């Protein structure tokens, strides 16, 4: 676990101060912004420019990368022309002075997305990001069969729970059924959809909404090169919308969002496959949300975890309740969510 003194010494040491364009004797004070499952976030004010910045410590990698902080840093560089993401300022993934990688980026204003009020704004943000030209020099990982890639990730996450001696047997049975039925979908089917940068983790708290100004998307921990429908489905599925709110979108609300997204993209990118690809990604993304919670339940229940968020833990328990799992299986995996037919 990272000690507060370690981090304070690091930001006030010569290497970091030099990288920030400081003379080495201006003290930097860090203020906690909150933590994710695999990162710690702080804000600080640059002593010379007066600009507010964010320091992010990557304590682990969901993508199993050796250099997680560096991956995020270069992804933000690729995304900068969109004007919708934080500008990356600095990265140190050497782990020489700290046991973890560090990224510094600009702080951006805004409030979390409200599903009842901000859906059109979210569509515009994603349209600007997805239609961005992917640089030839990008380091972002590409999945040739993204739906299959999500499914394979689900299998790996599920095993952590299914092999656990404290796993709930009824929950295991429902997860097994979800895996089997989702595995029967055409996950390897190609679509001809354009390749774009996707965030892959579009919960409401990652949007910064400013009604009277530009709005943004932050937290680029797991970007990939994929097709737009992967991001859109993740944003719309109940396993995402219910995560930080009590919202579950209706088929009509989802259809309206898709229409607004396509209109916002305009002629910047081919969106002809979006509507037909959404149902497939919707189903496999529901499975992803469930299996991530299953894996996290085991991690949260074992000693030695570096980070623990009690609000997150309560939500994990809610997602693994048999009634919630049965609802996902019956109403989202076994049915076409847009038209409600079996």
Quick recap:
The chain has 342 residues and is an alpha+beta fold.
How does this model look, in words?
By secondary structure, the chain is α+β, with helices and mostly antiparallel strands. The protein folds into 2 domains: 103 residues, Phosphorylase Kinase, domain 1, CATH 3.30.200.20; 215 residues, Aminoglycoside 3'-phosphotransferase, Chain: A, domain 2. Helices cover 44% and strands 12% of the residues. The strands form 3 sheets. It has a 5-stranded antiparallel sheet, with helices on one face. Helix 5 runs antiparallel to helix 6 and helix 7 packs across helix 10. The longest helix is centred in the last third of the chain and has 28 residues. The termini are far apart. The mean pLDDT is 94.
Brief descriptors of the model:
342 residues; alpha+beta; Phosphorylase Kinase, domain 1; 2 domains; two-stranded antiparallel sheet; 9 strands
Helical percent range? 40-55%
Number of helices: 12
Name given to the CATH homologous superfamily of the largest domain: Aminoglycoside phosphotransferase (APH), C-terminal lobe
Could you name the ranges where pLDDT drops below 50 across 5 or more consecutive residues?
none
How many domains is the backbone divided into?
2
> What's the rounded overall pLDDT mean?
94
What is the fold-level CATH name, i.e. the topology of the largest domain? Aminoglycoside 3'-phosphotransferase, Chain: A, domain 2
Number of strands: 9
Task: Set out the fold topology.
Blueprint: H1 4-11, H2 14-19, E1 31-35, E2 39-45, E3 52-58, H3 68-79, E4 88-92, E5 101-106, H4 119-130, H5 146-162, H6 169-183, E6 196-198, E7 207-208, E8 216-217, E9 224-226, H7 228-236, H8 238-244, H9 251-265, H10 274-301, H11 310-319, H12 322-333
Antiparallel strand pairs: 1-2, 2-3, 3-5, 4-5, 6-9, 7-8
Helix pairs in contact: 4-9, 5-6, 5-10, 6-10, 6-12, 7-10, 10-11, 10-12
